[in-house]
């Protein structure tokens, strides 16, 4: 009976290298890079726990909780900070700017959904002042039909573009420009949200807000502390409410 030769290689007998031995060529193999907590297969579970904390903290709108659960925050921060991505803390993103706490992003998004023109649970056109790393825009894209987001710092504008490109969010438009001027080309807006605070509201923001729309922005309050300001535009004019204390980077003009 003729024996069939096994295909090559049927088996390779490797000698197990002794501990500390260098491979051929004399170079030690590189140690595997540590995988930050929340990155990879466990990120969904970590996000789910973050969303549970948001709900326990008072966020009620299901579409906001769903959006916060869908967006992977660790992809918007430096890899060295990825293990903190799902903690309720702001993190540096470069150029003296920060990514807001998840609780603040969720809170401001939920406030926008309280606008008169969002009674159906979906926002129309939204303007974000201060794109930053792009995280808030990614969240807004899931609760609004269209998002215009403007950033004055060119390096951050490009970074946000890199972060958002893989998500293929066709309803998000990134603009490099002076956020204090708003973005008249997309007006009027059902909602405007700002990620930087000043002493007064830029007039352009109120002018570009649609009737029935809502503006949410940090503003300097009594004693210099920042507070969250909500402005609603009605057929009769504007009404405003002052809410809790917050801490955002200063609002600046110009393009850098």
TrEMBL record:
Keywords attached to this entry: Cytoplasm, Methyltransferase, S-adenosyl-L-methionine, Transferase
Secreted found in the keyword field: no
GO cellular component, one term: cytoplasm
Pfam families: PCMT (PF01135)
Family from the record: Belongs to the methyltransferase superfamily. L-isoaspartyl/D-aspartyl protein methyltransferase family.
GO biological process: methylation; protein repair
EC number, UniProt record: 2.1.1.77
Biased amino acid composition, Low complexity: 15-34
Region (Disordered): 1-34
Classification via InterPro entries: PCMT, SAM-dependent_MTases_sf
GO MF, any single term: protein-L-isoaspartate (D-aspartate) O-methyltransferase activity
Coiled coil: none
Protein name: Protein-L-isoaspartate O-methyltransferase
Broad class of enzyme this protein falls into: transferase
Record's subcellular location: Cytoplasm
């Amino acid at each position: 009976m003729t024996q069939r030769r096994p295909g090559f290689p049927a088996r390779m007998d490797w000698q197990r290298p002794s501990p500390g031995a260098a491979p051929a060529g004399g170079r030690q193999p590189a140690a595997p890079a540590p995988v930050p907590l929340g990155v990879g297969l466990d990120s969904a579970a970590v996000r789910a726990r973050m969303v549970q904390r948001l709900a326990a903290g008072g966020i009620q709108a299901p579409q906001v909780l769903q959006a916060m659960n869908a967006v992977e925050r660790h992809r918007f921060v430096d890899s060295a900070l990825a293990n903190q991505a799902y903690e309720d803390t702001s993190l540096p993103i470069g150029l003296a700017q920060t990514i807001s706490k998840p609780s603040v992003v969720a809170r401001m998004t939920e406030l926008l959904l309280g606008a008169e023109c969002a009674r159906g649970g979906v926002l129309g056109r939204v303007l974000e002042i201060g794109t930053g790393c792009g995280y808030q825009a990614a969240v807004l894209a899931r609760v609004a039909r269209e998002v215009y987001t403007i950033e004055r710092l060119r390096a951050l504008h490009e970074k946000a573009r890199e972060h958002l490109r893989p998500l293929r969010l066709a309803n998000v438009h990134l603009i490099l420009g002076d956020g204090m001027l708003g973005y008249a080309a997309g007006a009027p807006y059902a909602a405007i949200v700002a990620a930087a605070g000043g002493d007064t509201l830029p007039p352009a923001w109120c002018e570009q807000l649609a009737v029935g729309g809502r503006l949410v922005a940090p503003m300097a309050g009594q004693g210099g502390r920042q507070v969250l300001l909500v402005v609603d535009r009605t057929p009769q004019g504007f009404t405003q409410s002052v809410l809790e204390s917050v801490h955002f980077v200063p609002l600046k003009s110009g393009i850098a």
